[in-house]
Amino acid sequence: MKLEAVELIRLDVPLKSAFRTSFSSVNLHQVVWVHAITDVGEGWAECGANERPDYSSEFHNGAATVLKSFLLPDLFALRHDLTAESVAPTLEWAKGHRMAKAAIETALLDAQLRASNTSFASYLGATKDKVPAGVSVGIMDSLPELMKFVEGYLADGYLRIKLKIEPGWDYEPVKLVRETFGPDLLLQVDANTAYTRNDFDLLKRLDEFNLLLVEQPINEEDVLGHAKLADYIDTPVCLDESIISADIARDAIELGAAEIINIKPSRVGGYIESVKIHNVSQAAGIPVWCGGMLETGIGRAANLALAALPNFTLPGDTSASARYFETDTTEPFVLVDGHISVPTGPGIGVDPIPEIVDRFTVSREIVRH
Ligand code: OSB
Ligand code: MG
Question: Is residue 164 annotated as part of the catalytic site, yes or no?
C-alpha cells in the first residue's frame, strides 16, 4: 500500500469521573489520533501518550511532533512498498517513541486489514470471541468513596478489581476491599512505580490479602529490584512500565522479575510486538493480560482483539466504554456477564462517529509527502 496523507487529530474526551494514579489525576482523556489515508483505504489509531510525560517519557504533542518530523516522512518515502509489517523495521533507527510508532503502525494495520476484509482478531491469532473484563480503580479521597466505586463496578459485573496504590493508600484500602467483598474476589494492585527498594517490608504486608499480583511496584528501570522483590514477597510481581519490548520481556522473565506481564500495545510499539511478548511469555509459562491507557473505542477495539489470544489468561483492564465515558467515540463497548465481545469486522471492526469526534476535537492537521 502507499501512504498518501496522515491526519493527526487532538481530542479532549471528558471522563465520567477523575482517574487518579500515583503519578496524576485526570478529568479529561487528552490524546492524539492517527488517521492514515492510503491508496487501499483508511485506518485509525489512538496514540497511548498522555498529555504529560508522566506514565512514560512520551506525551501527546511530542508524539505528534516525532511523527511529523521523522516517522511519517520515512513511511511516505517507501511509496508502494509500505506494509504494516514494514513500519517497525523502517523506523527502528529512531530511538524510543514507541507510542508514536505504535499509533502509525496500528492505523496502517487497520487500513491494510480493512482492505483485505480481515479482522484484527484473526490477524493477531485470537482464539476467543469474548474476553473477561476487569476494571482499574483510581486512588480516592476517602475509603467510603472507594467502596462506593468498587461496589458499583461489581454490580456492573466486572470480574476483577485492580486498585491503584501509592504509599499511604495501600494496606488499608486493600484490607477493606478484601474484607468487604470476601476471599473469592479477584483483586490486584498497581503502584505505577511509586515504591522503592526500601519499601519491601511494606509491600510484604500485602501478602495477607491473597492478591492476584502487584503491578510495577518500583522504578521501571530497576528490573533487578523487581526480581529481588519477587523473591521476598509471596504476591506475584507483574511488570507494566518496565516491559517495552519482547527482548526486555525475555530478560525480565529470566531474571525472575516478571511473574506475570501486563501487555499494553502502545507501550511496546504496537500489536505486532505485543504478539511477540505474548509468545515469549507463553513459552516461559508466564501469564499475560491486556492493559490500557484509558483508550476510547478505536483503541479499545484493537486491545480486545489482542486480549483474545490464548495466553491472556487473566482479565484485563479492557473495561466497557461506560466505565470511562458518558459518550465514546465509537459505538460503545458493553459488558455482558462480565465479558466484552471481540470485534469481528474488518480491521479494528469499529468506526469513529464523525459528529462525536468533531465535538471532542481540539485541532487537526494533515501531513502529506
Ligand atoms: O498503569 O495500567 C496503568 C491508565 C493510564 C496510565 C497507566 C495505567 C492506567 C490504568 C487504567 O491502570 C488502564 C485502563 O483502564 O485503560
Ligand atoms: Mg499499570
Answer: yes
Cell of 229: 522483590
Classified by CATH at the fold level, domain 3-117+354-368 comes out as: Enolase-like; domain 1 (3.30.390)
| Residues, the chain | 369
DSSP H or E stretch at residue 248? helix 246-255
292 pocket-lining for ligand 1 (C-beta < 6 Å):
yes
CB of 240 closer than 6 angstroms to any ligand 1 atom: yes
246-304 pLDDT, tens digit each:
999 999 999 999 999 999 999 999 999 999 999 999 999 999 999 999 999 999 999 99
Residues of the chain with CATH 3.30.390.10: 3-117+354-368
Per the structure block, which three cell numbers stand in for 256? 525472575
What are 65-110's pLDDT values in tens digits? 999 999 999 999 999 999 999 999 999 999 999 999 999 999 999 9
Residue ranges of the chain assigned to CATH 3.20.20.120: 121-341
Residue from 95, 175, 204, 264 carrying the catalytic annotation: 264
Q: Please say if 148 is a catalytic residue.
A: no
Distance of CA 38 to CAs 84, 106, 117, 301, 316, Å? 12, 13, 16, 21, 32
Q: Specify the pairing of strand 361-368 against strand 3-20.
A: antiparallel
Tens digit of pLDDT for each residue in 326-363? 999 999 999 999 999 999 999 999 999 999 999 999 99
Question: What distance in angstroms lies between residue 348's CA and the mean position of ligand 1's atoms?
Answer: 21
The CATH topology of domain 121-341 is TIM Barrel (3.20.20)
* Residue 241 beta carbon below 6 angstroms from any ligand 1 atom: no
Q: What distance in angstroms lies between residue 127's CA and the mean position of ligand 2's atoms?
A: 25
